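Hi V.,

You were right to ask for the full record rather than a summary. Here it is.
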Amino acid sequence: ERTADEYRSLLESNVDEYERLSRLIESTLFLARADNAQLALKPEPMNVRTTLEKVAEYFSGVAEDAGVTLAVTGEATLSADPTLVERAVSNLVSNGIRHTKPGATLPIAATERDGSVTIDVENFGETIPAEHLDRVFDRYFRGDSSRSEGAGSAGLGLAIVRAIMNLHDGRALVSSQGGRTRFSLIFPGSGARVG
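Predicted structure:
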């Protein structure tokens, strides 16, 4: 026999686990479709600043709870699949909030360099060890325990980011030094223009 509160707690725990498993399965299927070129890109002109602000607004409550301020800067337009770009940026922002120390600002910036568009998301927390930098975009790679803790983290978010950038013929890069980690999404010049 259990109390109503105990049953409620157990059911809530089960729902959380089912949601986590659902996200894991969906992410794995996304990567499998991307690998087999079954994802059809639907590129269209998009305002990058608007997309970044939309993502920042979505994560504003989570960021506030974590004591992190989101700061969007830059202006650019890009010909890309808006849904996939939003997903890639969302993964980076979610990751950034998890790894940013309370009281810090998490910059989300769009810039134009030589006709290409770059989206940077930086976090200020633990430095990613140099030996892990080449592997952070690998599936299921979670690095050290201090950077892999977090609800629902399965080590697929950054793999999805890389898959999305590959679909756009772009690149996903990371650098980490002195407690500052920057993820960069670089979209090639042929599909980018400053707006």
